[in-house]
Design goal:
By secondary structure, this protein is an alpha+beta fold. The protein contains four helices and six strands; from the N terminus they run ααββββαββα.
């Protein structure tokens, strides 16, 4: 069974929003500190280069190495960028399942599912909001049996 993955478009959209916010922050900071235009452009280029590196290296690695799947009795979670962590939670030990929405949820339709169990906890990040809600109800229904 393959791992379910976050939507790449949503990860890149989140990166684009963060880039825009960083550029706005640099503009406000340069105006507040009365920095000349050359310093502003240097700061802008540094933020742009770092954002491109994050967008071209970090996000694809994160997407490739992050996922989740459910079989008959376990929820498997995989995550990490360089060091990949594999874990599982027995479904019969699940105590609570919660969907957490962040400020970008209305824009990108993404959420995090937090699973609490008697022996372990897990987070499923960057999941489509509808999938997160379906997963929560599915795991809750296992919990009730």
């Amino acid at each position: 069974m393959k791992y379910n993955k976050a939507t790449v478009k949503k990860l890149f959209a989140q990166e684009a929003i963060l880039l825009i916010l960083a550029i706005i922050a640099i503009m406000i900071l340069s105006l507040a500190l009365e920095i000349n235009s050359i310093s502003w452009w240097i700061g802008f280029l540094i933020v742009l280069i770092l954002s491109l590196l994050i967008g071209l290296i970090y996000i694809p690695l994160l997407w490739h190495n992050t996922g989740w799947k459910i079989d008959d009795d376990k929820l498997y979670i995989k995550g990490g960028v360089i060091f990949i962590k594999y874990s599982y939670i027995p479904i019969n030990q699940i105590v609570n399942v919660v969907v957490i929405k962040n400020p970008l949820t209305p824009i990108l339709n993404i959420a995090t599912v937090v699973v609490k169990a008697t022996a372990a906890n897990g987070k499923l990040k960057w999941i489509d909001l509808n999938v997160a809600q379906d997963l929560t109800s599915r795991l809750s229904s296992y919990k009730d049996h």
